[in-house]
Design a protein that fits this description.
Largest sheet: 2 strands, antiparallel
Order of helices and strands: HHHHHEEHHHH
Mean pLDDT: 82
Number of strands: 2
Structural class: mainly alpha
CATH class: Mainly Alpha
Distance between the termini: 47 Å
CATH architecture: Up-down Bundle
Amino acid sequence: MTSPSLLFDLATLLSLAALLILSLFALSFILHLHDRSLHTHSLQNFTSLWTVRLLLVLLVLMWSLNELARLPLIRRKYLFPFRQESICQLNVVLSLGFIQPCFLMTLLYLMNASIKKRNPNSLLAIVSVMSLSMPVMFLQIVFVYFAPFSETLPKFMYVSSVVSADLKGERMVLCACPFFSWLVYGGFALAYGVAFSVSCWRVMAFVINKGIARRINVLATTVMVALPAQVVCLCLSWVWVPETRLYGAMLLAMFLSVAVCMAVAVVLLVVRPIQEALVAGGDYCLWSHDKTLRPPREEAAEEHHQPAL
């Protein structure tokens, strides 16, 4: 009989495989657009944010690989089985302190940049995203690696892993989220939710294209549902013992909320805008040689007066 934890790990692996394929597909779109813009003058205006979109996709790839390292199924067999506690600490710091905050800030930057008349500086954008994420990462490092007041606090407030045993009685280390890590990320999520809501309201006030308005609504709904769901799952994960089915289900729900949010963001902020930019520039789909897919130049140009979402 297959254990519930193994089923949860397999479901996570399948979801990660799909997310990795989507990320590689988006990465090929970005590189193709950049290559085409070097030879096509009409595409140069669409490549101003190509490095920011590249950062968004790379962060999704990093998060996927970090989640792979979190799985006991992968960590015990392939990743330093005698240093599993250290891997769990690194997983918490990277995920809640660097990758997810940077991803959310990059998403917010792309939303705000879509209504600016001037092409933003991509290097400045990347520096801004990293700088805004550094305080969260610094706090995560302090609470995970140094664990202040650990002698007077319960273990769940500062430990990043718990030792358990599988069905065969073998030692198994399960990654966990310390209370203070959740507190730091929850505070960031609260502030981010307010900023993201304001940004969506500003963009919607500017957009007149119904198709783009639908995309913004889908993106906003996804983020505003996934972010609180992740924070709630992190909080409720302390209620159950890590070996129980409910704990595994809670971790899977938390993982899926983030994975769906990232997938929707990649499709709406990377794949679709680049696809439309290629069509507007006279190019056509990467997988098709049918030139009848090209719309009239005037209609494509008029459509891209709207935010590139």
